[in-house]
Specification:
Blueprint lengths: L1 E7 L15 E3 L8 E7 L4 H4 E2 L10 E6 L2 E18 L5 E9 L6 E6 L8 E8 L11 E2 L8 E4 L6 E2 L24 E4 L6 E3 L6 E3 L6 E3 L6 E3 L6 E3 L5 E8 L37 E8 L17 E4 L2 E4 L4
Parallel strand pairs: 11-13, 12-14, 13-15, 14-16, 15-17, 16-18
Antiparallel strand pairs: 1-3, 2-9, 3-5, 4-10, 5-6, 6-7, 6-9, 7-8, 19-20, 20-21, 21-22
């Protein structure tokens, strides 16, 4: 017995995919899967982790299926037909299946793939089975080979709180189990416009604040937080957090605090820098700075007198943070 979650394409392969060995086709269907299926298969062994036909293979799986705003609960599902494909660019070999949802509002034939399909990519048919039975060695969709596509959660032009309770226009949610990595908890969050608060929860997430003054909370996992173009607060979980800013260079000067032990900045006058004249206006001295919170505590450590300061990078050059 197995329970697993998959995404599927709103695309009927019958009449669209070739069935002859050696034939090729170009994927021109949806760029991303739009459907969600939470599958429960009561069979044992290889039958429990695969989908084959409900006729020859006697498939008995059921699923809660959602697509296009409609849902089927506890519908019978099976693989009406299965293709083995080869990606002509990468050489990867995998199975796709005609995913048959038999009951409820979401009933229909769709496409389920063990790996995300690439728009405009050519695929070669290596084999085809119109009535697969995995027990006799026929090809089948195998959930253990399934590679989840990115679970992209989109915000709007306004400010909002985007967490596990937020559902975007496509039905995507943080930590829904349909993302990447362990438990399907890895998500991509595009917060969009407005002043947003994002809590990415578990998994290895990528969070992009976009426009507005955003607060980004990575949660647990190895997260990447990008505050966007406006001021943002990035709060990591238990890993390194980085953020990128545009800063103004004040020019070169002597070390403001050459003696770190006495608590005094010997050359405080050098803080004004050397730029700012008519010949070197500050608006022309913009630089890119990236900070690294390696402790993940939400602050950049700046104690270089007995402590361990964290780093920042300005135009590709790494510096230790110094509180002076």
């Amino acid at each position: 017995m197995a329970d697993y979650k998959v995404r599927f394409y709103d695309y009927n392969p019958f009449g669209n995919f070739p069935t002859g060995t050696g034939n090729t086709f170009t994927w021109s269907g949806p760029s991303d899967p739009q459907g969600f299926a939470d599958i429960s298969d009561p069979e044992s062994g290889i039958q429990g982790v695969t989908l084959d036909d409900d006729s020859a293979g006697q498939e008995s799986a059921t699923a809660d299926v959602t697509i296009g705003g409609v849902t089927s609960t506890g519908s019978n599902v099976d693989a009406e037909a299965v293709w083995t494909l080869r990606d002509t660019v990468t050489g990867e070999i995998f199975e796709v299946a005609a995913f048959d949802v038999e009951n409820g509002a979401a009933a229909g034939d769709y496409l389920i793939s063990e790996t995300p399909l690439v728009a405009g990519r050519n695929y070669e048919v290596l084999s085809y089975d119109s009535n697969p039975n995995v027990n006799t060695g026929d090809i089948a969709f195998n959930s253990t080979d399934y590679v989840a596509p990115d679970n992209i959660v989109d915000g709007t032009v306004g400010g909002e709180t985007i967490d596990a309770s937020y559902v975007d226009a496509d039905g995507n949610q943080i930590d829904s189990g349909y993302g990447t990595g362990a438990g399907g908890l890895g998500d991509v969050v595009n917060a969009g416009g407005g002043d947003d608060v994002v809590d990415a929860g578990g998994g290895d997430d990528s969070v992009f604040g976009g426009l507005g003054s955003d607060t980004l909370i990575g949660g647990t996992g190895n997260d990447t937080l990008d505050g966007g173009t406006d001021g943002s607060t990035d709060i990591g979980g238990t890993v390194t957090v980085d953020n990128t800013f545009t800063v103004i260079s004040l020019g070169s000067a002597a070390d403001v605090d050459p003696d770190e032990t006495n608590g005094v900045s010997e050359n405080a006058g050098d803080l004004v820098g050397t730029y700012g004249s008519a010949g070197t206006p500050l608006y022309a001295e913009l630089a890119n700075m990236e900070t690294f919170d390696t402790s993940g505590n939400g602050a950049i450590e700046d104690n270089d007198n007995g402590g361990t300061p964290e780093n920042l990078t300005i135009n590709g050059v790494v510096y230790n943070v110094d509180s002076l």
